[in-house]
Amino acid sequence: MNRNVRTMVMVAVCISIVGLAASASDLIISEIAWGGTAGSSNDEWIELRNVGDKAVDLLGWQLEFGNTVIPLGEVSEDTLEIRTTVLAPGAFLVLERTNDDSISDVTADLIYKGLLSNTGILIDLRNPQGEIVDSATGLESGWPAGSAGDGEPAFCTMERTSGGEWVTNNAIVCNGTDADGAPLHGTPGQMNSVDVMAQWGPVVDIDFPAEAGAILSGTEWITWTASDPNGTDSALAIAIYVSPSEEEDWVLVIENLANMGSFSWDTAEHGSSDTVRLLIRAADPEGYVGEAVSVVFEISNAD
Predict the structure, then answer these.
(1) Quick check: 286 pLDDT over 90?
(2) Could you give the CA distance from residue 43 to residue 25 in angstroms, rounded to a whole number?
């Protein structure tokens, strides 16, 4: 078995750039709506999470970006209103900008003032000792994940994975509504979409080819199995993609296959290349998706 992967849908972009300070913390930055919402690009919000097994007293904690300083435990600086002062184990802290309308059906734990630039900005989380215990930062080209109004899909949040990476909300696993009552592309106060996918997304196994660097030609049989942890395996729909390079440039080979089986693949249809990979994608009726990617191999067919 080459690889067994649970993953998000194709819209999710995974970039590992989050910087964790040397001082570890159970309180982390877990989601950022830096682009606002479809209701208003000004309706930004930020989510923190207590990933530890003990409650966290928020007095003395601060969130900082640019000239904005948001105390989490008292009304001061750029903190306008506080409704939660102690965060229970596993709980989320939702911070909404300016008022409680950014997420119309989720009550904010804290209301703040301050603007997140769409070009990216460093966000630091400081503990009561003043130490930076968690950070989120943008690249020179902007934020590593998420989207604004020109994104596809638009106004997706930037979510934290359990491994500390940032991904774009998949626009499938969502909750909350904006100021106009439209669904958000985010998960305020709930488990992030990437974590839901990891828990409930289909699991895909691919055994093809048997070895990395294999040279294939003519007709080859691709085999796979896929299972659904929260549904019926036979309800899964399988699609096979090929990439003629190491880039994420996937070309559909065939779709609507059964959750386990084999496919006779004519490699001659894809020319010759020394960097080829296959991707098997399984989708369940609820929209959860799982993927497995093969090892790199070669295709060699005579012209």
Answers:
(1) no
(2) 28
Residue 104 to residue 90: CA distance in whole angstroms: 23
Contact yes or no for 31/47 (Cβ under 8 A): yes
Over residues 65-91, the pLDDT tens digits come to 999 999 999 999 999 999 999 999 999
Instruction: Return all residues near 75 (Cβ < 8 A) that are at least 6 apart.
Output: 81, 82
Which residue in 170, 172, 149 sits closest to 44, CA to CA? 149
Cα(131)–Cα(184) distance, rounded to whole angstroms?
Answer: 33
Domain edge (last residue) among 170, 200, 230: 200
| One domain, residues 15 and 86 | yes
85-95 per-position pLDDT tens digit: 999 999 999 99
Report the alpha-carbon distance of residue 114 to residue 67 in Å, rounded. 8
The domain in which residue 248 lies consists of 203-299
| Reported pTM | 0.70
End-to-end CA distance of the chain: 32
> Are residues 82 and 226 located together in one domain of the fold?
no
pLDDT in tens, 228-260: 988 899 999 999 999 987 777 889 999 999 999
Measured CA to CA, the distance from residue 207 to residue 191 in angstroms comes to: 32
What's residue 303's pLDDT? Answer: 63
Calpha distance 184→15 (Å, rounded)? 22
